[in-house]
């Protein structure tokens, strides 16, 4: 039986490098135009690879498929998920301004998009919930979401809010299990489909915790939370460009943190003053440096 984790593209590349000569031809032909391979008849695929039609059938069975039909379905699934990573081509975006322009434009577009989409009333409500919490736990998994969770903890402690961040699924669920009505969970997920994270938010909700999520609208995570701050960032087609979603999540975190800071007011400013005062003892240019840098 075919493994659900079988990576058909990786296997094709392996065969193209070191398989039998006829198999190399078939694998190379498929990889050169995977979209064509998902729709082409055995006849046309054999012609493109320069082999016989029985060779195509044998090739598919060698990979563990019953025939070409099942092979094409699996190839099409792989294309749908990660097709732009199969044959990567440099993007011509930003009109020749180079890497700095591409990164700058991607960050700007991502931040502007979430800035326009954010609901001010929901943002204010989220801030109020956090200010009233005895404990805030920030959850995120993977790259960008983990970074945002850690940054939220960094933003909150200086305002005098007890907060911790957790990027491990097991820790998320364990800390969720000791939640109470005084606990607030703030969870980040680009997809909203990370199962351990969804379970942690659900568990915390069962124990009375208030739950706020920054995630894709209509996702599984969105359906588990009390308050959803939905967002979406266009990843584009340039596979060499790091995801601009990181900038969007940081911007959203700053929006929440600033709204919280304004609600806390003078007590929060006093705590920040203490931090700044401490920094001034060790850095000559402390007045011109960001707080906590």
UniProtKB/TrEMBL annotation:
Provide the protein name. MurR/RpiR family transcriptional regulator
A Pfam family in this protein? SIS
Domain SIS: where? Answer: 126-266
From which domain of life does this come? Bacteria
> What keywords sit in the KW lines?
DNA-binding, Transcription, Transcription regulation
Tell me which residues make up the HTH rpiR-type domain: 6-82
Q: Which GO terms describe its biological process?
A: carbohydrate derivative metabolic process
Keyword tRNA processing included in the entry's annotation? no
* PROSITE patterns (alphabetical): HTH_RPIR, SIS
Does this UniProt record's set of keywords contain Transcription? yes
Q: Tell me the InterPro entries matching this sequence.
A: Homeodomain-like_sf (IPR009057), HTH_RpiR (IPR000281), RpiR-like (IPR047640), RpiR-like_SIS (IPR035472), SIS_dom (IPR001347), SIS_dom_sf (IPR046348), WH-like_DNA-bd_sf (IPR036388)
Matching CDD domains, A to Z?
SIS_RpiR
* Molecular function in Gene Ontology: carbohydrate derivative binding; DNA binding; DNA-binding transcription factor activity
């Amino acid at each position: 039986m075919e493994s659900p984790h079988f990576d058909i593209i990786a296997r094709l590349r392996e065969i193209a490098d070191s398989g039998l000569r006829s198999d190399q031809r078939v694998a190379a032909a498929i990889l050169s135009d995977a979209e064509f391979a998902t729709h082409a008849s055995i006849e046309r695929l054999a012609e493109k690879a320069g082999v016989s039609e029985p060779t195509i059938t044998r090739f598919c069975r060698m990979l563990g498929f019953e025939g070409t039909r099942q092979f094409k379905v699996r190839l099409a699934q792989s294309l749908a998920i990660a097709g732009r990573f199969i044959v990567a081509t440099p993007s011509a975006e930003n009109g020749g301004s180079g890497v700095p322009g591409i990164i700058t434009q991607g960050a700007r577009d991502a931040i502007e998009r979430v800035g326009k989409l954010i609901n001010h009333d929901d943002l204010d409500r989220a801030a109020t919930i956090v200010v009233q919490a005895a404990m805030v736990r920030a959850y995120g998994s993977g790259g960008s979401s983990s970074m945002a969770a850690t940054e939220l903890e960094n933003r909150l402690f200086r305002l005098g809010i007890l907060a911790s961040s957790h990027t491990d699924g097991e820790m998320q669920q364990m800390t969720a299990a000791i939640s109470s009505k005084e606990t607030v969970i703030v969870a980040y997920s680009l997809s909203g489909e990370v199962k351990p994270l969804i379970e942690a938010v659900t568990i915390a909700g069962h124990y009375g915790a208030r739950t706020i999520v920054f995630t894709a609208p209509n996702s599984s995570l969105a359906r588990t939370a009390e308050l959803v701050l939905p967002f979406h960032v266009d990843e584009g087609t340039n596979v060499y460009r790091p995801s601009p979603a990181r900038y969007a999540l940081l911007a959203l975190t700053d929006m929440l943190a600033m709204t919280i800071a304004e609600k806390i007011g003078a007590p929060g400013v006093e705590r920040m003053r203490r931090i700044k005062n401490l920094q001034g003892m060790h850095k000559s240019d402390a007045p011109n440096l960001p707080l906590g840098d």
